[in-house]
Amino acid sequence: MPSSPGSETQDWLPRITDAAQRLAGVAVRTPLLGSPLLDDRLGGRVLVKAECLQRTGSFKLRGAFTKISRIPEAERRRGVVAFSSGNHAQGVAAAARHFGIPATIVMPSDAPAIKIRNTRAWGAAVRLYDRDRESREAIGDAIAAETGAILVRPYDDPDVISGQGTIGLEIVAQCAEAGIRPDAVLVPCGGGGLSAGISLALADRLPGVPVHPVEPAGFDDTARSLAAGERLRNEETASSLCDAIMTPMPGEITFPVNRRTLAPGLVVDDAAALAAMACGFSDFKLVIEPGGAVALAAALTGACPVVGRTVVVVASGGNVDAAVFVNALETAAKGGSHV
Amino acid sequence: MPSSPGSETQDWLPRITDAAQRLAGVAVRTPLLGSPLLDDRLGGRVLVKAECLQRTGSFKLRGAFTKISRIPEAERRRGVVAFSSGNHAQGVAAAARHFGIPATIVMPSDAPAIKIRNTRAWGAAVRLYDRDRESREAIGDAIAAETGAILVRPYDDPDVISGQGTIGLEIVAQCAEAGIRPDAVLVPCGGGGLSAGISLALADRLPGVPVHPVEPAGFDDTARSLAAGERLRNEETASSLCDAIMTPMPGEITFPVNRRTLAPGLVVDDAAALAAMACGFSDFKLVIEPGGAVALAAALTGACPVVGRTVVVVASGGNVDAAVFVNALETAAKGGSHV
Question: Is B2 contained in some domain?
């Protein structure tokens, strides 16, 4: 494995395949699920890569475990620290537990209760902070300085990116097993680590298949940045149900990758995310959280055309409070017909 | 493949392995999922065989497809007829669609709306009947006599049983991949086809591992029949949320098998099934219907001891109306702490 990836796509592949070996027996090889009845209604084929079934309820375990597994043991023993709205938190906490090392997670006090509760249940210490008044980076840095813990970034880290890229390898293998060549792959996008990892794997193994990042309205920094060719920020006043992917701007490491590998970004609103959660319930029997449902939403709304095509969507997480899930089901019921 | 199974367990295995070959590429190899946080709370290990992710939303596709695939083509062309509260209906309808033959499904008028809607969406003709005033068997027989369609029974058929048995083969393989020997396997039980198929496979491949059927209170005919050594009926006044497994008595073909292969039956009430659905939501990110959740419920309530053990539970289906699922989540929320 090279010690640091170069600028070329192919330099990343050895890191991603190495990550897949590290994750064997640790991460679930999540299924790629279809729904013929949904396909009938849409006039095309949608396949869901069900990362909500991943251990810890989201894909984040893959990157966090890969990162921690690559820290030399002497350093690793001092523990890890991370900041996260919840899914990365659980991924880091679960990976730290695997290695028997302490983890401290800095979480916003308004994160979904299930994410805070589960992060603690995995054995991590949780430090809550005020999203409007405190800097999670500053808190994380202070903890690292004090304890010698190593910071596990949520996306801006080549090891984390290569871990998420293992999903891309699985999509390629599962499409081959089913005799399918997808016309497009849609990936929920926050800081861009999942998009970077998957698009790097696809660029090597299925070149020419477009990988689109999908973002919630108000947090479409990656879509705008890709169009502009430079990193742009979101308005600080934006809000969304999609807590998992509310990031301020593309990452320093993820954006140069994504600029090379991604197709244009797609944007969906909260109502579309809720409708996609209801579709996940009725057509796939999956619990998908709002931020995890935006890729499916892009297929259902037509933001990505599906008619006559085969589209793979990543359902990136399922850590949603019951009240939000109930809201999604009741909103869909009020809307009458579903997709 | 022998044309009819004898009384010995090993006579069934060739039929089950033949079914597995027929189902390759048709049925989903559903994942066997764990939740370390749930295991922490229970003090043991629970693994969920997620048949709710099966095509059509339940395991029933396996038996229906296996049965229809074994009907000689000249007869098959005349179509099939079935009676079912919904999951077998969808399994038969989807299998008939695969073979391009007509299907008529006799369904109770009070079946969950999602099951009736989806059965029609798979292309089957649906004949609704009044559960209290009409005999579904008589209606099915009349349709068969009129059209020459072949009746696909929901459980009392060796081909159907062998199809359901493929789940047992997968459980054995997935446990081996994970380096696990289960201490018990729990299976939701209506007419006993799923229990028979799985227990036949386990008896051959993992002899000595007890397979317990799990039934809803009021519909514990298999538990009582196993204890009595003869087929006993349920009270006709009983009711349950577990629509998928509300059968009057054990099957003529399933019971002699189950009497040889099953461990004692377990019983859970509707409240336990609802709590298990909430656990499926929060700990496994799965949508499980009430009747599909009774095996998980037996593990959560302690009806089957879990402490210090590894228990595999089959989540047999996920076709549940949103209102019932919302009820499960809200009941769990009111109850405060979950398991």
Answer: no
